[in-house]
Amino acid sequence: MIRDIVDKLNEIYDLREFLNKDPYKVLIRTILSQRTRDENTDKATENLFSKYKNINEIVQAPIEDIEQLIKSAGFYRVKARRIKEVSKILLDQYNGEVPHTLNELVKLPGVGRKTANCVLVYAFELPAIPVDTHVHRISNKLGLVDTKTPEQTEEELTKIIPKDQWILLNDLMVQFGQTICKPQNSKCEICPIADHCQYYNNNFTIE
Q1: What is the pLDDT of residues 40-86, one digit of tens each?
Q2: What is the DSSP string of 59-108?
Q3: 73 and 144, same domain (yes or no)
Q4: Same domain assignment for residues 29 and 114
């Protein structure tokens, strides 16, 4: 069932062009993405890196300037402080390189498991399952898991999903959650995986 779900979603959606990007930019983009929409994240990321090209320039940049550049991402004062703090730690402790293990990434301020897993997947192509609101919600709706928190969802998904499909899962489910399996007004009538969905089977009957 799991492979069928991934295969069907993979037929519909093209994986977005995040892989093989600069790990530092992936990390900063993921910090900016916290509690905001993709379009806001994209705008803030573009604004920031159009003026400050790399980690050295961002460490030297005035905090007020960073705040203004990333304002569209929301919580911009907190995120600006995080970006400066993380960047300085990377320079001081990691020679300016982003670590590529979960244990090291989550030591960075403001970097939780979801952010760390996003960096592993989208910067380094390492198998991980980033669980955001889409992945958590959809996994429970499908009946793949029965969990209360994203952390629990990640733990359960790693048990049932083949490791060679971990990298695909987040991006496919996010796009699926944005277009069909929406938080409100889901388009169940055109869902390509409705036959695998616990919610659909419990709430809809075929005449």
Answers
A1: 999 999 999 999 999 999 999 999 999 999 999 999 999 999 999 99
A2: HHS-HHHHHHHTGGGSSHHHHHHHHHHHHHHHHHHHTTPPP-SHHHHTTS
A3: no
A4: yes
